[in-house]
Amino acid sequence: MSAPTFSWMIGGPQGSGINLGAEILARVMSRLGYYVFGNIEYHSNIKGKHSYYRLRAADRPVHSHIEEVHLLTALDEETLIGDLYHEFPGHRGHVEQVAPGGGILLEPDRVEGVRRRLDGRDVHLYVIPYGEAVHQALSLAGKGGQAHEYRIMNNTAAIGASAALLGVPFDPLAEVILSGFHGKARRVGETNVHCARFAYEYAQKEFKDLRFKLPPKPRRARDDKQIMLKGTQAVAIAKLKAGCGLQTYYPISPATDESVYLEGQQSQYNLVVLQTEDEVSAIDAAVMAAHGGVRASTSTSGPGFALMPEGLGFSAITEAPGPVVVNYQRGGPSTGLPTRHEQGDLRFALHAGQGDIPRIVIAPGDLSECFYDTFDSFNYADRYQVPVILLLDKHLAAMYATVPRFDTSGLKIDRGELFDPAQRDGRYYRYRFTESGISPRALPGQAGGIFWTTTDEHDQVGHITEGIGNRLTMMRKRMGKLELVEKEIPDEKKFALYGSPQAPIRVVSWGSTKGAILDALGRLDPEGKRYAFLQIRFLQPFPAKQLQALLRGAQKIVCLESNYSAQLAGVLREKTDIRADHKVLKYDGQPFSEDEVVAALEATEAGAGEEVLVSEGKVVSAATYGPEQVDKLVELKEKSGKMAPPMVPLPPGYNR
Description:
7-stranded mixed sheet; 5 domains; 22 strands; Rossmann fold; Pyruvate-ferredoxin Oxidoreductase, domain 3; 22 helices; globular; 656 residues; alpha/beta
């Protein structure tokens, strides 16, 4: 049964290598010509907790995951039937997500429990001894009898068997596996190939064909080349292209991957990656580097960004050309959900800091926009001499997808207005009042370019002053830069409308929700006549007038975002006086799926209330986990003898 899209999932304990295995299979399918989208969900502990990776392969571009799984590959029991004993309401496992006619790849000792869970559902079980595949591979490598020490290679066996069931040729799989091993590690790569080959041949011999098949390979033009990468890589590559000279960071998930990637590029580029003692030092070092003539950036996540507002003020009042601050949002507040998704930092990004701080805030919606918006941010920082905040999130950081090869032919570096001694008779005022509000800046070592700077209010030279007239002029000078940004940056960089401007229903959103919305509207309204999607990329300065024009005349406006308080809907109301008819929200730590967007939009058309909450693939109510669910959970725990002290907090008003 060939379908236009195929959904595959692998699950296992943290540290079992599921990400490496999934990304090998993703690269193979990309090389075969498929469009691929992947995302990982992983626990915040170092090792042992349940993690899973979803891949979606299609004959057309896809931008999100779906809830249905056509082939589930399990490396542990929790992937299959879940764990009710350590979390509330408990991870339920992924068996229920397998589509009728789909399959589950599992080890022999898991079969009975899964059959009971399936209760007669039409799902085929593909039983394979992963350990035997590892043992055979080690024997060929002269390491027989050590299979238990190489249990991490179970993921290689799982990928080999999955490839056989999907009908993927083995040679491309072997090539991709070997591409990850170089030098002395080549023999380790060869052992992994042996392991994958045994599982591949075992599956071909022992298993019936999977009812679901990969779609036919898409026919693409020769120049339709694609690359495959993650969001952190797209941002990092853009920084290298933009000439970033200093990247600062303090380790924090999910932002660290970007800095680690850049650390590996320092020998090839004129770049220093500096790990500081905390996020306060990270932003201050970046501001000082920007004053020193270096393009500078810092990357962090919510808790780290919460330590940076003073640095934003430091940058703004000294009119530093930047830095570019990349905030990979995650579930909050405080430590919150360290490795889970959320879009909860919008309001904070717009207002963080003491007093009025001019800043540019941009929210890319996909991997291509991550690249181009990051590159542009360095130009904006230099040209307008303000901090630029890029609002990404865990979903964008970790998604792994095929995208069109970046077109860098039109990318030009703009360092902004620089001091020219010949134009001012050698007199240099760092904060000179100009018609545009932008003061030409000197680079260190430039003749006649010595200047004072301070975080106190100052005059044109840079000397501290509390004069009223100077204060009024300086405040207008700094904040007026945002008006210049509004005039100079083209609208296509600030927002995009997908669908007909006359569509009666307008979906408004920002950031990584873009992919799920586009996929959902392609399913609900393929001709684009009933729905239109308005994606907002520039959140400061906010393109209020343009958005008013685009939303005027809509019969219904739906704001969709991954936070509790509908932050974009609030900003839209504040800036345009337009109130959303429905607020579709998700804050369970997971990104929107295509199915969840479809379900939510269908609910709004069916007369749902103003707030629509989605979770676990469907529209839910806030009271989904009430007293009855708590009673059932406690009963299960008591019967098993695995009470988990202490119990998690119960719903308000419920006492047990």
